[in-house]
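Question (not urgent): is this output format expected?
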Amino acid sequence: MTPTVPLFLLLLGLIGAQATFDQRMAAAMAAGLCKTRPTDLVFIIDSSRSVRPSEFEQVKVFLTNVIDGLSVGPNATRVGVVNYASRVKNEVSLKTHRSKAGLVKHVSKIEPLSTGTMTGLAIQFALNVAFSEGEGGRAKSPDVSKVAIIVTDGRPQDNVKEVAQRAREAGIEIFAIGVGRVDMTTLRQMASEPLDDHVDYVESYSVIEKLTKKFQEAFCETVSDLCATGDHDCQQVCISTPGSYKCACKDGFTLMDDGRTCSACSNAAIDTVFVIDGSKSVRPENFELVKKWINQIIDKLDVSDSKTHVGLVQYSSTVKTEFPLGRYNNKKDLKDAVKKMDYMERGTMTGMALRHMVDSVFNIAQGARPGVQKVAIVFTDGRSQDYIGDAAKKAKDLGLKMYAVGVGNALESELKQIASEPIAEHYFYTADFKAMSQIAKKLQINVCNDEDPCECDTLVKFQKKVETALQALNKKLESMSKRIALLENKIV
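Got this back:
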């Protein structure tokens, strides 16, 4: 078979690749498709003695990044900042700054108070003072949102439940961000419903800025053109409809039954293995979200005895094959087996897991099929405790298509080491486990075997078109030859 066909399909795949979330959001905001709705926004930031000076600087970077995505102005978003420890200080009033530049400069100069942790007192201050009309708060109106973002890293020394409830009843939407050894019960007592959307946790202040994307999206007004903003899950072509969209495919591709993905080779067989981080940093509640994410991807696969086979590996300080390739050949059994997977906890030996995947799981003796495309989806939430470079390189050198998915403290450099080229199509990151469902929508496994019959069908169609064009050209040449002969006869 000619080597140009796989290259041609690869080029089509590259052309159809989706932009990243950051690119879509930036483009939408630049085009005016996404603007922040009028909001009175107050940051309530913990600067108790447990927050080191360098960590407090990272909190200010996070505030600055969120502010950069807002439309700041007296008729748009007004921003205030409340700083607290054992006492409360109103650093920035809602009425203080009419421009973004002045606001950001003011935030950069805030200093930590470095005493206790009176979170309840800070919420009471925000309710009574920071959101008051005297400090620039606007009168209660359905056109203006009241939002408080609380950032804390410890257990409060006072009661927060009742005062947070009063704030919510007054119409203030509360987001609670916890860092490190924060008390999760306290976060839930403060936050608005639904808690999944209003409670966030990060392992350390060094990664808090990764929550910026969430809040840029939260303050973005809904727009009608979902295709333009990228708020869709079409693999190739998105067609806008009033308040919604529909998906389509490029020429030569077929829309699959899910109505979203496209395939050039619908009968390709694939061996797919999930390699899942089960270390203690993931936490039990997030591990359940990871299992749902795996099953969300399985729902998109063409699972059968002759097409897609799925295997599952979990790792922490050790590695375990939860089930090998080919054990389950229908989606129901696969998803049930994923749900039954127990959480391992302990360390993060990603390199060991990759070696196990290559040497044991993608082994013919363990169910791998010869001559079938091999795909690995590697998930992790933190830095590996062993070296991953050699194992990742070996996997790709052997022809495995490697997808790398990171959450929270996962290192971008390690994810890119794992991912196949082009990296933009095989590497995904989110700061929040609750956003993993969006990655499942974007992650598209679309491969073709070199001998796939659909490629032959494409060649046949192309050959027929060329033959038809040549026949038409020959007829024109014959006609021109006759005319030339007639002219020569007249000249003679």
